[in-house]
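[agent] plan:
  1. take the single chain provided in the ticket
  2. run structure prediction with default settings
  3. attach C-alpha cells to the ticket
  4. add a short note for the reviewer (M.T.)
[agent] executing step 1
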Amino acid sequence: MTLDRNSPLPLWAQVLGDLRTRLARGEFTGRFPGDEELRAQYGVSRHTVREAVRRLQAEGVIERGRGRGTFVTGTLIEQPLGALYSLFRSVETQGFVQRSVVRYLEERRNEEAAKVLGRPPDEPLVYLERLRLADDQPVVLDCSWLPASLARPLLQVDFTRTALYHELQARCGLRPDAGWERLRPVLPSREQRDLLGIGAHTPALAIERLASAGTTPVEWRHGLVRADRFSYVARWSSQDLGAGFEPAVGASH
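[agent] step 2 finished; step 3 output follows
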C-alpha cells in the first residue's frame, strides 16, 4: 500500500485500514508482524505503527504477550456496505466453513415485524433465529421475519448449511434484489454475550435489514455481529455519481 501523505486521513488510520483489509484476506495466519516489520513495510514512524496496532488490540483482533510476540485472535470477515450480500456466501468465499445452529424456525405473530413488512398486525409470519458460526466459532446472532403467505415452505428447510436467500428463491420463487441496512454499536445482553462467546462490556454491532423482491418486502432481519470478527467496507469509484466532495474554500456555487 502507498500511503497518501497529503490526505486529511492520519497516517495511522491509513495503516489501520490496510491492516484490516489484509486481516480480512487471511494474510496473517497466527503470527502478526512486529512494529519494526510494519514500520519498514509502510515507511512510517514507530509511533504511527503503534497507534494502528493499539487500535487493533483494543478491538480484540490481535493479542500481545510478553515474550510471545503478537498474534491474531480471529481473522476479520469482510462485508460490503451498500450491497445486498449473503452472509453465508461471504463467510464461505473467505475460506471459513459456515454453519448455523437453528434456535427457532416456526410460525409466529409479531406486530412490530408485521408493521415493518407492511402486513396486517395479526398476519402470521415465519420466524427464523440462527446462531451463525464461522469455523465453529459464533460470529452472528440472526433473527429473520418473513410473511408466512410467501415463505411458509421455508418451515421445512434445514438451515444448518444453507443460505436463507438461496432457499427463498428455490422454494418460494422470491429473489431479494433491493433493501436497506442499518448498523449501530450496542452492548449485548448477558444471554446474547453467552451465545456469541464475548465478555462483559464488549461491544457488538446491531444490524437491521429490510430486503425486498421487487417492491414487496420479504424479510425483516435484526441481529448482532461480533465487532471483533467483522469489517464492513464501502468502495466507490469515479463512476459513482452520488459520491461528491466538499467544495473547495472560496469556490463559486
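[agent] step 4 note for reviewer: The mean pLDDT is 85.
[agent] ticket updated
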